[in-house]
Amino acid sequence: MTLLETHGLTRRFGGLTAVDGVEFRLDEGEIRALIGPNGAGKTTFVSLLSGRIRPSAGRVVFAGEDVTRLPAHARVMRGIAYTFQITSIFARMTLLDNVRLAVQRRMMRGWRGPDARALDAAAMAVLDRVGLADRATGIAGNLSYGHQRLLEVAMGLGLRPRLLILDEPTQGLSDAEIAGFVDLVREIARDATVLLIEHNMGVVMELAHRITVMEMGQILAEGPPEAIRADAEVQRAYLGG
Ligand SMILES: Nc1ncnc2c1ncn2[C@@H]1O[C@H](COP(=O)(O)OP(=O)(O)OP(=O)(O)O)[C@@H](O)[C@H]1O
């Protein structure tokens, strides 16, 4: 089943067209990697999906509903979670409090506010999933860069999304942490669809069911990992050859 699709999705910044008439489709349950050279438009594209920025033209359809005009928080309520750069973390708060905020947002979907104990338990369970439970009472700002990225993933998971969008989640992680992260994404994908912007090709090849390659705001190629690896156009875009 199609979970998300875009039609003619376009975003201009002055004279620059960062995302250019993109037709995109994502199936429920898949892990999709979005790759492409710097400046290809990947972050702009996922920002349009999450509602962080507005399109100049085109539409975003999520679970059959046109969400193009919905603000980001309304899309979160429908199940789109976007973990982006470190800015989403509250540096002076504990890890637990950070995740509690995300869980609370989800629980507020019901008409009653969540009770504190249920909130704590849910937040701890999420921290445990990303391997940060033993640091729950530590201050988020004291974490290493890589662990802050994991905390972001935890905050995304706290929303219990149908679609989790991850923007360069392995940046700054050690090799051992990357291996743990790959396992984590596989586990997340058991009950969510994952769209991942990723520069580490090892991670992409290991995780993705399908890969979408962007270049200059457009989709250059799309397909399973083996096909993308063999694609001459993709090699040209990456290697300049
Ligand atoms: N707010 C903005 N104002 C003006 N130009 C922007 C803005 N955001 C992005 N751009 C431009 O749009 C183009 C696409 O940028 P974007 O960040 O989406 O690419 P990317 O594929 O995510 O790159 P990277 O891999 O380096 O993160 C770039 O030329 C960038 O300079």
Automatic annotation (TrEMBL):
Manganese found in the keyword field: no
PROSITE patterns: ABC_TRANSPORTER_2
Stretches assigned to the ABC transporter domain: 4-241
MF (Gene Ontology): ATP binding; ATP hydrolysis activity
Keywords from the UniProt entry: ATP-binding, Nucleotide-binding, Transport
Superkingdom as given in the UniProt entry: Bacteria
Keyword Transport among UniProt keywords: yes
CDD domains according to UniProt: ABC_Mj1267_LivG_branched (cd03219)
PANTHER family, per the entry: ABC TRANSPORTER ATP-BINDING PROTEIN, CONSERVED COMPONENT OF ABC TRANSPORTER FOR NATURAL AMINO ACIDS-RELATED
Protein name: ABC transporter ATP-binding protein
Organism expressing this protein natively: Thermohalobaculum xanthum
